[in-house]
Amino acid sequence: MKWSKSLTALLLLGATVDATCPFAGQGGVRGSMTGPNPHTEEGRRVLAKKKQRQQRRLVHSPRTGDYGIPEGGFAAVREDIKTMLVTSQDFFPADFEPPIGPNYGGLMIRLAWHCSGSYRASDGRGGCDGGRIRFDPELNWEDNANLNNAMKLLEPIKEKYGSSLSWGDLITLTGTTAIEFMGGPVLGFCGGRIDDVDGSDSLILGPSDIQEELSPCKSIGQQGACESPLGPTTVGLIYVNPAGPVNATGNPVASGLDIRQAFARMGFNDTETVAIIGGGHAFGKCHGACTNPPCGEEPLVGIGPNTFTSGFEGAWTTAPTTWTNLYFTNLLALEWESGIGPGGNLQWAPVNSDDDIIMLTSDIALSADPEYLPISQEFAADITSLEEQFAHAWYRLMSNDMGSRERCINENPDDIPPAQWWQYPLPEATETDVDYVPIRTMIQDMIDSDSSYVEAFSNLAYRCASTYRDTDYRGGCNGARIRFEPENDWPENEGTEEALAALDPVKVEFPEISYADLIVLAGHTAIEAAGGKMMPFCGGRVDAIDGSGSVDLAPRYYTPAVVSIRDDMQVKGLSPQEGVALFAKPAVDAPLNQFFVGLVDADPETLSETERALLEPEFLPIVTQFAESEDALKESFSNAWIHMMTSDRFDGPTGNVCDARTDVTLEGVDVLEVTRDYGIPEGGFAAVREDIKTMLVTSQDFFPADFEPPIGPNYGGLMIRLAWHCSGSYRASDGRGGCDGGRIRFDPELNWEDNANLNNAMKLLEPIKEKYGSSLSWGDLITLTGTTAIEFMGGPVLGFCGGRVDDVDGSDSLFLGPSDIQEELSPCTSIGQQGACESPLGPTTVGLIYVNPAGPVNATGNPVASGLDIRQAFARMGFNDTETVAIIGGGHAFGKCHGACTNPPCGEEPLVGIGPNTFTSGFEGAWTTAPTTWTNLYFTNLLALEWESGIGPGGNLQWAPVDSEDDIIMLTSDIALSADPEYLPISQEFAADISSLEEQFAHAWYRLMSNDMGSRERCINENPDDIPPAQWWQYPLPAMEEPEEPVDYVSARTMIQGLIDVDSNNIAAFANLAFRCASTYRATDYRAIESAGGNDMQFCGGRVDAVDGAGSIGLEPRYYSPPVVSIRDDMQVKGLTKHEGVALFAIPTGGDDDVEVAIERNLPPNALSNQYFVNLLAGDGDFDEYEMALLEDEFLPIVQRFAGDNELFLGVFAAAWNKMMTADRFDGPVANICDSRTDETLEIVPRENVPLPIEDSEDEGDDFGLDSKSGGSEYEKGDAGMGSILEGSSGVSFFSGTMFGLVLVVASAMI
């Protein structure tokens, strides 16, 4: 047996997004980890906050790639850069011949300049943070020609330092080093740029549809004269046309005006502009070797002296690899004339001079422009002045998008320049110990006496924080610049001065608090007084001395308003859900969602342009959700509010000082946490049932119930459909889907084609949810409602399994599609298979629950083909044919289809699109003549009547009975139950025997509702007898029998220890056995076979043995391509974090064959340490494709962490092992019976990691000195051999599943 194969077959582990940068804070080094202890309550709280911020970056930004301080620091990288600068490469030779060459300095300065120079101050977009110059569109900008070759030159350096060195840092450091290497002045280096994984954030810089929507230029014929917020005058350039404006080629004065405008958009003044242009052009040359590129002949076609980049040709000075001020002396001392250069473009050459130098029209502008001229003269006369200004201008160019100095990292903090004026530094925080409790109390007293302060204080806090930009990390309420111009003059801030004045008495009473903290604390208190969630307050802000830091931060407006709203959310780093939530208007006497309730009901003519924009299709689903659910609004509003109030509290590139803060003002108060509703509601589920029954027959005007008296009104069919569609997303392949989590409330499920109008069903349930609050989950309410509806209409039910725990969003349904995550794991739409999607997807069509009701995509109206689709789709849910026919026919005994017209919305006021005019599926009609009563008419009609297809009122193919006056229908997927030869006899049985149908339907419905709930032990109900007995598909284990004598685990453990003492190979053998046994566990649907356990290497007994292996069906490992997808998926399904999943790859190897594997990897057998990861990183050993996948960007930082910190690895491994060994020991929905267990076996056995004695061996081929005869014959048998070992040592009488767990603990202690 090869361990590598058995490991990757069972240990494809993967999960929640929590990978963090392996280098923490400033001055971090490779292999080090500083920060909170994950084994303490406080540490877990801090890590949870950090994880939330990391997940925010994943969701809202592509900036999730490489960053950090590389091994050896940036100083080591500098040395490699210097070597690269003068080492010419054949694929793209360096400029200049000796003695001044070869030299890539000019090229690398251009790369850094063009990467950083895309920054624009108007909205903070652009810049080299993200390193997006590697991707389209920037990579293909006209101005960035040949910079792909510059980055190719840097690739060996990037590969050497790996993920700890971002491309953004490497590019800017290379340009800075090139200047310094050639004698130029630099201030220092601010590291910490975080690479984007694609160029999507540059689309808005153009050329793209997104750019033209926000800031049109080409589309309105202005290319060459583009206006702000675009940075350059021409999309695709960095700044301006070098030959002069489009309509004024060769005109230096006009070029000067363009330059001033373009550099001002980057925030540069005239002095900075002249310094950066002239200083930068001290180095390198232009490339335009011919008019018809590619130029030259082999072997130098298009490279070396034949390079064509800009189409201009020549250097600016005679010393282009040395720092001088010759650029300025030449510019002013020589006479220049224009002409056509070798590249066919207008450029300038000196008159009566032998120097082979050039200027461009944009250079001549620095002497022709009357404002630039005296600056150029100063730099020509005084090189020290130039050096001072250029060093500062270059540092600004490189760091404009990096925000405050607090975000910079460097192994040598002194190499980070002091905070610059354009970073708008705040005063140092004082060490004053502020007691926020009485301050918060005083604010609350003010609100209690005058409720208008709710609006005033919440508005003040939001306006103060609303300047924050996630694009360049500027703005925010830290500094409280809202007190000064220009912010206090912005029309949007009207009324904030009065709110500030109202807080003055608080400031007088408590002078130690800053205005910034006071404003935020007042906002928090106001939001909570208005019924918002309790939110932790993080103090420590300071006050700015003026409002200069607000320059460029004024609100931006575009046409139409929907573009403004979208742009503002993106710049602030808010999701659409969060951005819309912040439109809420908190008030004491109204629900927080009152604004949205009024918005959806308002006459559009009475709304503002911005309010109407919120009703556009892009935001309308969110507005509707908030109008219907105050809880959903509160969740999104709180997340958005905390983001806005704390995002400017920087601690390194990604850290935040608030992550480690606690809020003493909320001691004893339940503060904002991710809450997941579940429980037994007050009065029990029986009380909820009574409320449901009332709701079922009480029609509401906003969405009237089906059917007229005497059979109506009745919402039964709608509620059965809601429960069915919530639960029916379950798929057996990986346990994903189902109604546990109640994710049908969120996108993507909420917007699936099959779930049309189910938002209205949930709106009908909202009063019940509000009545019972957090003790009743949406998942339980939805499934209980469907079950109650069946029972209320006379149908058969088994009972109810409660205990579903609500998710706070729909992210776990992204795997079900449509989404990029789903297409990566199980492609369908992207490979043209929509309508014939394959497992692990549940339905045949993404967005449906199972199949197309009218028949397969390519076989509309074909019942036989539909039957095949149905069998396939229901089998993916684990259903057999009998269950499938029972659930379809029994479910369709109730309710009707809705497709009232071909062009919805149908009907006229006041019933447009509702009541008889409802359009849901596009099919129209009921299946039976008694659609609110349980019968088997569905089956008798299906078989007794003749059916013919036709087009229904909704325009879709459906079936009607021939020669019958009954107004009933069937769908192609219904006719399939008689057309399919396997389904037909089952349908005949149900038509003939309603009691058989009732028996099968009741069981099938309970399975449909509870497939994702795991074992019966997870169910809760105030009446345990109402929980059905364990079903076969729950694969119940035998009841635990009380042994005559208590199990003596101590003796058993001692005996196992003796086996290990005799043969150390049993360490890996026992660990392998235990992991194999536990590896089938799935957190998605809580399924497992017998497993073995350890609680932080403690043992928790009490397992029982199954009588067969039926419970393992569907639990075999899943493989996807590429391997990294398999690993990630398996971690997620098992409920492991990425760190835990990666740690488990290091399970020790041992035994006869596995010794060979250990030797191949240069690892000692039967030992647990981080050496596995050290070797993996070094490529020191033979690793398979799944292990090599750990070196992909997604997992590499974790591997690096473990390689550098054995203690960290051992701690994470223990946590992961404990989780795997005990996760299936259920005690209700969330509890675990092992939580309260102690390990008596450890009272006599020491828990230290006992080092294995590795003796020298003279045996050939046995490098680790193991006795090759020990246990070999047994271990070669794989699992069977391991069983033989245990059987041979089972002198104690207890369950072998428990023995396995105890074996593991002893083996774990040894490793």
TrEMBL record:
Record's compositionally biased regions (Acidic residues): 1255-1265
* Signal peptide coordinates: 1-19
> Where is the segment annotated Disordered?
1251-1280
Q: Name one GO biological process term.
A: cellular response to hydrogen peroxide
Looking at the keywords, is Isomerase present? no
Keywords noted in UniProt: Heme, Hydrogen peroxide, Iron, Metal-binding, Oxidoreductase, Peroxidase, Signal
Family annotation (PANTHER family): CATALASE-PEROXIDASE, HYDROPEROXIDASE I, BIFUNCTIONAL CATALASE-PEROXIDASE
An annotated Gene Ontology molecular function: heme binding
The species is Seminavis robusta
What is this protein's record name? Catalase-peroxidase
Could you tell me which SUPFAM superfamilies the record lists for this protein?
Heme-dependent peroxidases
Q: For the Plant heme peroxidase family profile domain, which residue ranges apply?
A: 115-412, 726-1238
Keyword Repeat on this protein? no
